[in-house]
Specification:
By secondary structure, the protein is mainly alpha-helical. It folds into three domains: 40 residues, no CATH class; 215 residues; 59 residues, no CATH class. It is built from 13 helices and no strands. α7 packs antiparallel against α8 and α10 packs antiparallel against α12. The chain starts with 8 loop residues before the first helix and ends with a helix.
Length: 384
């Protein structure tokens, strides 16, 4: 059949081309199968859907400075928007419709700020898992310090659950019951609430404080991460003081605005610290960090020692000056000559140590090099 004169040729060519693209690489093997068709199965998706062509998880981490600044502005903008909504809701007069807006009020459990805090802590747990996956391939971490990021990820997941549900109140009540046994109906409501608050705050301060100090040692190479972690710790302490009524918010702020802002900024600072360190680890693993190594530092230190010895020898009295010293003070001249002899002796040892690094003595131990050097000096003196 002559395809040049029959039917829509462009449509047939398009179908043939699509079949060739959709046909798998082992089309010849599929033709040999008895149960299959002569042409083989047809792939419904393009080959770009394969795993090795998909973006990696590390590609989602912002690395460029502009992207990092954009993410910071986005996070701070979310906090500002939530607090602006809370201020508008808190200033409304009591009305029947106010109960329907409880999800926008930061003073209620399960509100918009609780969801935002939980989302930030969950993102921090994901970044901790990412750091663990990269740091586990470092060749000089013999003690396995990277395992701390597993603990950090679990702690962040717990904090995320706590931010969304307020489970710390139940933990505080259980701890208070273990410490203070007795009939609960005789305990005043205010004393019970205060005792539960103190209980969970003390436990959280001990557990997460120790973990925070361990993470501070881990992220010390990144200055931005260390600064963000210090800010997070200061904000968490401020939130605890506000919770215990040891620190009072300004009277001009609506109720609950100071506590909500402080805790959101604390979570955001913690997320920023982990994100900065994840970026640092990713750049370090890719060899994109500038690490300055001076291979001649040891040689420079060895050369600096003879220079100091020469300076000390120049400051010591010379033999001509010792002759002019009167005979009434022989002990003083002997004491002054000792530093010069010691300096000359150390200078000779330093020069000898420099000579020991010669390529002629490669493969010999240090004592053998010294012995060979002494023999060479004796030969030079005999020849002279």
């Amino acid at each position: 059949m002559d395809f040049r004169r029959s039917g829509p040729l462009d449509e047939r060519r398009r179908r043939v081309l699509m079949d060739e693209i959709a046909t798998p690489a082992d089309a010849e093997n599929s033709e040999a199968n008895a149960g299959g068709s002569a042409k083989g199965p047809v792939r419904a998706y393009h080959e770009t859907v394969l795993t090795h062509r998909q973006p990696k998880v590390t590609d989602l981490l912002p690395v460029r400075p502009l992207a990092v600044v954009a993410c910071l502005m986005l996070g701070l903008g979310g906090i500002a928007a939530i607090q602006a909504i809370h201020v508008q809701i808190a200033t409304l007069k009591p009305s029947p419709t106010l109960a329907s807006l409880a999800a926008l009020d930061a003073r209620h459990r399960g509100s918009l700020d609780d969801w935002y805090a939980s989302a930030m802590l969950t993102a921090g747990a994901a970044l901790a898992a990412l750091i663990f996956g990269i740091r586990s391939h470092r060749v000089d971490d013999y003690r396995g310090r990277y395992r701390v990021w597993l603990t950090a990820g679990a702690a962040l997941l717990w904090l995320s659950l706590d931010a969304a549900t307020g489970i710390h109140e139940a933990v505080g009540m259980a701890l208070y019951y273990l410490v203070k046994r007795g009939p609960w109906d005789q305990i005043p409501a205010e004393a019970l609430a205060a005792g539960c608050t103190y209980a969970w705050l003390i436990v959280y301060a001990i557990v997460f404080g120790v973990l925070g100090l361990r993470l501070a040692l881990e992220i010390w190479p990144s200055r931005l991460s260390s600064l963000a972690l210090v800010c997070a710790g200061a904000l968490y302490v401020t939130t605890a003081l506000l919770e215990l009524n040891l620190l009072h918010a300004p009277a001009t702020l609506p109720a609950g605005a100071a506590n909500s802002t402080a805790i959101l900024l604390a979570h955001f600072s913690l997320l920023t610290a982990i994100a900065f360190f994840a970026r640092h680890v990713l750049l370090d693993a890719g060899g994109r960090l500038k690490v300055y190594i001076d291979p001649h530092r040891k040689a420079k230190a060895k050369k600096a020692k003879p220079a100091k010895a020469r300076a000390a020898a120049q400051q010591a009295p010379t033999p001509s000056s010792t002759k002019s010293i009167p005979t009434s003070a022989p002990a003083t001249s002997a004491a002054a000559a000792k530093p010069a002899l010691a300096a000359a002796y150390h200078e000779e040892d330093d020069e000898e140590d420099d000579d020991l690094d010669d390529a002629r003595y490669e493969g010999l131990s240090r004592s053998e090099r010294r012995r060979m050097k002494k023999l060479a000096r004796r030969e030079q003196r005999r020849a002279a």
